[in-house]
Design a protein that fits this description.
There is one protein chain. By secondary structure, this protein is an alpha+beta fold. It has one domain: Aminopeptidase (3-Layer(aba) Sandwich). It is built from 5 helices and 7 strands. Strands 1-2-3-4-5-7-6 form a 7-stranded mixed beta sheet, sandwiched between helices. Helix 3 links the parallel strand 4 and strand 5.
């Protein structure tokens, strides 16, 4: 399996993950997002045809309001902190023809390993995801993601957990 940054050679138009919003993003918005440096878009390439996209994920910097974190997590950070730097795993999708092969986990593990490595250089204490639904939420919870008290579909994972678990 090869995961690389999205480029013009990747065939975005044939990608279909079954979710119209994620398909639309990859086919119609990804170039604009890249041009404006809004996120990194990482592609799982098909081994037999590297232009075909089996799945993708996006990462971008973000911050979390200190007061939105659960109390037990807040206690680990200075109390006068307004915002804590983090990374948003904004999108993660696997093509319909590739589902059930563990590619979602491969993409997630790659994203978490990348974030853990970058956080050593750039800072960033958490990974955030906005789960689209309960099924997506349960996928992330299997890997230790924790829901925010005020928004059960918004989840976070401390980078320290990634480092301690060594997902890669």
């Amino acid at each position: 399996m090869t995961i690389s940054l999205l480029n013009r050679d990747h065939d975005r138009n044939s990608f279909d993950c079954g979710d119209p919003d994620l398909n639309f993003f990859l086919k119609n918005l990804s170039s604009s997002f890249l041009k404006r440096n809004l996120c990194g878009i990482h592609i799982l390439e098909d081994e037999t045809d590297p232009c075909k996209i089996l799945g993708f994920y996006t990462i971008s910097p973000i911050s979390i309001e200190y007061k939105k974190l659960p109390l037990d997590v807040r206690k680990k950070y200075p109390p006068k902190t307004d915002k804590i730097p983090a990374y948003l795993l904004g999108k993660l999708a696997v093509s319909e023809r590739s589902k059930g092969k563990g590619f979602g986990e491969i993409l997630l593990m790659d994203a978490l390993a990348l974030i853990a490595e970058e956080s050593k250089k750039m800072g960033g204490a958490f990974v955030l995801v906005d789960a689209k639904n309960e099924k997506a939420k349960s996928f992330y919870e299997k890997y230790g993601f924790i829901e925010f008290p005020d928004n059960p579909l918004c989840l976070f994972l401390p980078v320290k957990t990634i480092e301690a678990t060594k997902f890669r």
